[in-house]
Amino acid sequence: MEVRKLELAALGGFAVILYFSYRTLLPIFDAIVIGIALAYLIRPVSSALKPRTRYGSIAVLLSMSAVILPLIFVGLYITNEFVSTFRSSDLIRIVEESFSNMDVLITEIRDSLFGFLGTDIDSVSSSTLERFSEKFSQMAQGVYDYAIDVTTSLPLILFKILLAAVLAFYFLRDGDRVMDRLVQITPPEHKGLFSHFLRSTDIIFQAVIIGYIFKAIFTGIIAIVVFYVLGVPNAILLGILTGILDLIPVIGPWIVEILLFAWYLFQGDTGFAVVFLLSTYFFVSFIPEMYIRPRISGMAANIHPAIVLLGIIGGMFAFGAVGIIIGPMFLGIVMVALRIYFYDEPLEEIRFGYRDTFLNLFRGWKARENDKR
What we know:
Elements: H1 2-25, H2 29-49, H3 56-87, H4 91-100, H5 102-116, H6 126-152, H7 154-184, H8 188-230, H9 235-246, H10 254-266, H11 270-301, H12 305-319, H13 323-342, H14 355-372
Helix pairs in contact: 2-3, 2-7, 3-7, 3-9, 4-10, 5-6, 8-9, 8-11, 8-13, 10-11, 11-12, 11-14, 12-13
């Protein structure tokens, strides 16, 4: 009885410690997720450098520098070009004046939208017009508030990015040792199965990051094409900026769409502004998010794209911006567990690294081509 009481007390104490650990990590949860994503992004370079260097820490630092520094320089160059392009037009003042004259803008947008749909504005009831104006005003105010929140949170965002870089360093340096240690402490009769589960989970994580990167690349390419077709000036520059912003979960590509939408509204070209917003939302945001990313990640991980899509959407609602990364990871782990432990259908034997992930991607394309034949 005394031993039982001690066990219960120990379990209770451990539960309390787990709760406070959860509260400790919750504020930096997004930084941990970004750190994991950075580690998977940098790991191919780190794996190639480790055999050529004497110390693993040096290999990790060199690989992080080789990947992150070029991205920083490219981002700074694109940002400088973007600011230089719009400096003469005083874009910040335009956006502020656009939101300060929201009633006039909403009326113009409403009239242009109904005109674009071929509906006579006089035939629409006043209650419908009022509800349209109210809903659009709420949406615009929400976008404006979100932009202000992101701007005021920049110091915290930068701190979390730095923390994510430090965490990525430790994940890269010690990740393999932690995995090996977990396998070692597993009971012998389950060691092989658990090792396979870890490798399968690893490929799920890699596939999610691959889909994330490829989606940003395709977003930039599609944005360039759409901007060029619509006659937007500096289409290549804006398209590249859109692709780069797509790599940042907190911001995303929509910020370019909203700023250009506000720009055309301020210029008085309301009809084109509405067409531009609808076109860019469908081609630049909707198609890459709903089709390209789930398709690539699903093929690379050998799971159905619908699972990845559900993870992206559900993760975004449950965890915010970082949910688009961790949502598919969590559902992918569930699928791995179901296949290995319950349905006796383990994933193909794989190794740590990106080679087999890309092989899965190409195997999926090849299998599809064979099915068509």
